[in-house]
Write a structure and sequence with these properties.
alpha/beta, Double Stranded RNA Binding Domain, pyruvate-formate lyase- activating enzyme, 2 domains, nine-stranded mixed β-sheet, five-stranded mixed β-sheet, 39% helix, 23% strand, globular, binds S-adenosylmethionine, binds iron/sulfur cluster
Length: 492
């Protein structure tokens, strides 16, 4: 157990998340009372202090009642080009915590003090202020404590995204449509998705309500212009092709085929895709699909509960290429139970032969709400250094395949404190993925569990409007969800 005491500040969440980066398996408890015992294996005091008119952040670390490390940061010297002192204080508190804890761990902390999901946003903020590349790297490594390679990676990604994000247009939006059905639930998945076995009978009614919602979105976005559309899930191809076709055609009806710059269907699981299905998507001008292996090792596919073999993946991929899809994405997960360097090399060797236009490399994240979370003790997971080596392989293979990183995000409880990276061949980046990650464009979500995010550029602010995550509530309270979106969009 790690006990933490905050003095003169309430930056609890950031402190909690950063301590968890250093000690992922430890319980962390905040001490509210000065008199509590400090005879814990680790006791951390994080405080904000004022002295001679200056602000300092200080961290003291005790083990078995003895002070074993401490660190002080002068907040006035924090140089992150921020307009707000509150932000400097937050960074100062995390930086002194980092400096005090770094000597106590053998693990690498490649993302330094960053615990958020979207590190590339920092690069955009700095670029928007006209800061030069060298100085950006200095801020990322010196203040945010990123490793040199992560700093360079997010600078490169940020620069690559600029043409897709800027100039900002507050009337531009992308449409996300959720199909929350899957053939079965994968071991690691916590998405709000429904296994077909129990929920098949809801599909028709779901599609009817979804189409009603899409029509209503057309009305509430009058005067705005669509950028991209993305049908995700779940597994969109888990529902019959004629149902998915109705949805796609409704999107065209409402927003005009020619206005949609990119239309993705995350086909996902090869066990839901047939030649007929692919032809329906192709005929309806879907220009980007996902066929997701996760791994090319049969034993692992069985273990995670996906009902397809590596052979099914290869056959489905060639079928889609033959039909003519210009961009195929493949998702992989690094760190699946039972997988080490040998298994990853095998997966990558197979993927290299297929040569997809996009590759998304996820690092396994142990999510609450997944089967994995509740059965964790049954599995052996690799240590940070092996996960790091496996990720290095993905970087090497991507280079060989001329795939360049173009978006990146991180998750809580991600193995080894690493990241997820989307790769694309030049000019084949998924515009929707950049929009959802960098939050500089409005995304309007339709369907169960879909989250709309309205972007107010003047305030650089996002307003989230979630739909219900329960099928009965989604179907029964559809007008309420449309009304919630309308209320916010009309303030744009
Ligand atoms: C929303 S899922 C939908 C994709 C599709 N249903 C499929 O499974 O092929 C998007 C991707 O997130 C990744 N993913 C899901 N859960 C994950 C986890 N716990 N850790 C790492 N990656 C995960 C998988 O690579 C998955 O393909
Ligand atoms: S990973 Fe994909 S197929 Fe598996 S349960 Fe989650 S959404 Fe469904």
């Amino acid at each position: 157990m790690i006990k933490v005491r905050l003095i003169n500040h309430e930056i609890k969440n950031d402190v909690f998340e950063l301590i968890r980066v250093f000690f992922p398996m430890e319980e962390i408890e905040f001490q509210e009372n000065d008199n509590d015992s400090i005879e814990e294996s680790l006791y951390i005091i994080s405080s904000l202090e004022r002295s001679n008119g200056k602000l300092y952040s200080s961290t003291k670390v005790y083990r078995d009642n003895s002070l074993i490390d401490q660190s002080i940061e002068d907040i006035n010297l924090i140089n992150i080009y921020s307009d707000y002192i509150e932000k400097d204080i937050r960074i100062g508190i995390k930086k002194s915590l980092y400096n005090a804890l770094i000597k106590l761990t053998e693990n690498e902390i490649p993302w330094g003090i960053l615990t958020g999901i979207r590190p590339v946003k920092i690069v955009h903020e700095l670029l928007n202020k006209g800061i030069e590349d060298g100085e950006i790297i200095k801020v990322l490594t010196g203040e945010y404590k990123l490793s040199d390679s992560k700093a360079k990676l997010i600078l490169d990604i940020g620069k690559r995204q600029r043409d897709y994000i800027y100039p900002i247009d507050k009337n531009r939006f992308s449409l996300y449509i959720s199909i929350p059905f899957c053939p079965t639930r994968c071991l690691y998945c916590s998405f709000p998705t429904l296994p077909l076995g129990r929920f098949q009978h809801h599909i028709e009614e779901y599609v009817t309500k979804l189409i009603y919602e899409i029509k209503s979105i057309k009305k509430i976005t009058e005067g705005m212009k669509i950028n991209t559309a993305y049908i995700g899930g779940g597994t969109p191809t888990a529902i019959p092709a004629k149902e998915l076709e109705k949805i796609i055609q409704e999107v065209y009806n409402c927003f005009g085929k020619r206005n949609i710059r990119e239309f993705t269907v995350e086909a996902g699981r090869p066990d839901t895709i047939t030649e007929e299905y692919l032809k329906v998507l192709y005929k309806n001008d879907i220009n980007r699909i996902s066929i997701n292996p996760q791994t090319m090792n049969d034993d692992s596919l069985k273990l995670i509960g996906r009902k397809h073999s590596p052979d099914d993946i290869i056959k489905t991929y060639y079928m889609a290429k033959e039909i003519g899809f210009p961009i195929i994405n493949m998702d992989l997960i690094i760190g699946l139970p039972g997988e080490g360097l040998k298994e990853i090399k095998n997966t990558l060797k197979e993927i290299e032969k297929l040569d997809p236009e996009n590759l998304t490399v996820h690092t396994l994240s142990v999510k609450r709400g997944s089967r994995f979370w509740t059965t964790l003790e049954e599995y052996n997971l690799e240590n940070q250094s092996t996960i790091g080596d496996m990720l290095k392989e993905t970087v090497e293979y991507s280079k060989k395949m001329n795939l360049i990183p173009y978006y990146l995000y991180r998750q809580k409880l991600i193995l080894g404190n690493f990241e997820n990276i989307g790769y694309a061949k030049p000019k084949m980046e998924c515009i929707y993925n950049i929009a959802i990650m960098e939050e500089k464009e409005t995304i309007i979500g339709a369907g169960m569990g879909a989250v709309s995010k309205v972007f107010f550029p003047e305030e650089n602010r996002i307003e989230r409007i979630p739909n219900f995550r329960d099928i009965k509530e989604y179907i029964g309270r559809i007008d309420e969800q449309i009304h919630n979106k309308e209320k916010i969009i009309k303030d744009l």
